[in-house]
Amino acid sequence: MSTIHKGTAPSSSSSSPTIRSYLQIAVIYPLSLFIASFCTVLFTPRESYFSYKRNIFNTLFVKYGWFWTTVVYIYHVSRLRRTSHLQAFARWFLATGWWILVTQWCFGPPIMDRMFLLTGGLCEVVNDPSIVDKSQLTTGELLVTSAACKLAKGNWRGGHDLSGHVFMLTHASLFLLSELLPIFYKGDFIHRQHWATYSVMGLLFLWWWMLVVTGVYFHTWREKLTGLVASTLEWGVVYVLAIREIPAVRETIGAPGL
């Protein structure tokens, strides 16, 4: 006679992505960035179309990177049938919130501007004693000046400039990958061949390529490293830890699915 064992609930399906699966895919980004950056140690990169900041991929896509990420995500979510759209957009809200805090606004200047200021950097306009006496400025005024530097047609000088390109490209890619991965684990042929899947994969490829370009042509090692670290924080907390290990979070924002 067979014995029925009672106790713990059955484990999740083996067809669901595991933490190991997420990490194996996520390592693509630091590895690609390291290889691209290391190549510049071995040889001096030649100028190319991508070495110019005004290339069309940079000005049309990367500059508005979170907009394009949002567009393909909405398209992806619109075809899902067994996943709460409200919960899907709650996860997008968290990812968007982190992008805003780092690059746009954090109760004033964004985190990347605050880091620049705290490491001794200022706008060149503020650094010119003939224009501004720094000793007469409050911390708030210095922060505002740092955040408004580009609008004032000044240049960043002296501080640590966290790579916004590395941050946005990696942060957006980890977000989209985490949302798309279940399609390849549990989705059928129709889900995998859907135009939404192609759209997400196409943007992921473009973000990866522009990350490689950034690694070769722009920013220092430290600037790229801090951009990379900042890009993984929200993803690690939400997708690797909270959704999988904290039931209350999973019930609130759900988990990526079909």
Sum this structure up briefly.
The protein is mainly α. The chain is built from 13 helices and two strands.
Descriptive report:
The longest helix is centred in the C-terminal third of the chain and has 25 residues, at 221-245. Strands 1-2 form a two-stranded antiparallel sheet. Helices cover 64% and strands 2% of the residues. Helix 5 (85-103) packs antiparallel against helix 9. It is built from 13 helices and two strands. It has helices at residues 19-26, 28-42, 56-62, 65-78, 85-103, 111-118, 124-127, 139-147, 164-186, 189-192, 195-217, 221-245, 247-253, and strands spanning 122-123, 156-157. With 258 residues, it is mainly alpha-helical.
Low-confidence stretches: 1-15
Helical region count? 13
Overall SS class: mainly alpha
The residue-averaged pLDDT reads 83
Helix content: 55-70%
What general form does the structure show? globular
Radius of gyration: 22 Å
Could you tell me the strand content as a percent range? under 5%
Question: Key terms for this structure?
Answer:
mainly alpha; 258 residues; 2 strands; two-stranded antiparallel sheet; 2% strand; disordered N terminus
